[in-house]
């Protein structure tokens, strides 16, 4: 049996404790968590305690010294970067330059100019003798079976006439991320941090890029960082237009994507069935016919499996041109950020039309 991959996790916050460790535990036949790092010893210890139930030998690392040890440990081939949005890109680049494969949490970057300079730094690792390390951004929506199926259905409904994305979120004080200090200090607030998922879903469904956007934003719920609501009109490269509405905190949560074509309509709606959270995908065709399927969430597992399989492949090929799944690529994550950035900029300029930066 091949030796399992050894990985490290940078970050030990709520998301690592409640999401990463349990999801990684389900895939523990694919790799071993060798170390968990955090800036502070206390936080690293808290996460390590949880991880030890499945990975008994996980080491606890903290501070600059702990980080150097991870970077210099050649047995650690891949690192998950799950830190504050403001620091992730610098950290990822540091690891990539040390030859580690990186899975970074979304958002890919704080803005498109940061993404642009990050990409050119990443390009400079191209000639590295070990081959270019993989830089993946964790965007589970691109792996959700509901979106994979809906993308296929959209190709069956003829010319696209209209697209609607309506997100009425539930980010109130009951949510564990409500008090997250980095999210509150992030330009674009929760609209950017959470919005990248909904834009990823939109881009996947329509299968082309958003070209330009115009938007109004406002700050109504003063317990949230600004802006907390946005209403945008956008145009796609295929000429079709659409709307993106996002309310960060509403009392009646609803999340829906709808693509209207000449021969039918595809709708994806977040919901639950038989106690499972997931998405209902419906296809409405001419003559009033419709069919509906429910897909429970599984995108996070799919995305993690894909990353580890890409890393194994890269190691086997040992420097050969490694073909990581493009759905994980940093550039895809950067494109999601660029769309929201254009909408937010338009909001600041009272609805002026803004072109989306291209990657
Ligand atoms: C990085 O390299 C790719 C492929 O060579 C190229 O298409 C892209 O423009 C480069 N990006 C930057 C920001 O230098
Ligand atoms: C927050 O939103 C959830 C979901 O809508 C709701 O169940 C909960 O009661 C809300 N909590 C507060 C404090 O408003
Ligand atoms: C918030 O962000 C600014 C600049 O982006 C930074 O100078 C400041 O230290 C941050 N504050 C906190 C509490 O993270
Ligand atoms: C989408 C949405 O709810 N937009 C609202 C944001 O808040 C302003 C008030 O400041 C409303 O006018 C918008 O309708």
Care to describe what's here?
The protein contains ten helices and 15 strands. The two termini are 41 Å apart. The strands form two sheets. A nine-stranded mixed β-sheet has the order 14-13-12-11-7-10-9-8-15. A six-stranded parallel β-sheet has the order 3-2-1-4-5-6, sandwiched between helices. A hairpin with a 2-residue loop joins β11 and β12. The chain has two domains: 164 residues, 3-Layer(aba) Sandwich (Rossmann fold); 176 residues, Dihydrodipicolinate Reductase, domain 2, CATH 3.30.360.10. The longest helix is centred in the last third of the chain and has 19 residues. It has 359 residues and is α/β, with parallel strands linked by helices. It binds 2-acetamido-2-deoxy-beta-D-glucopyranose (4 copies). One 2-acetamido-2-deoxy-beta-D-glucopyranose binds next to β9 and β10.
What would a concise description of this structure say?
With 359 residues, the chain is α/β, with parallel strands linked by helices.
Structural class: alpha/beta
Count the helices. How many? 10
The average pLDDT value, as a whole number, equals 93
The biggest beta sheet is recorded as: 9 strands, mixed
Shape: globular
Overall radius of gyration? 21 Å
Percent of residues in beta strands: 25-35%
| Low-confidence region ranges | none
C-alpha termini separation? 41 Å
> In CATH terms, what is the architecture of the largest domain?
2-Layer Sandwich
Number of strands: 15
Bound chemical compounds: 2-acetamido-2-deoxy-beta-D-glucopyranose
Order of helices and strands: EHEHEHEHEHEHEHHEEEEEEEHHE
At CATH level 3, the topology of the largest domain is Dihydrodipicolinate Reductase, domain 2
Total number of domains: 2
CATH class of the largest domain: Alpha Beta
Provide the helix percentage: 25-40%
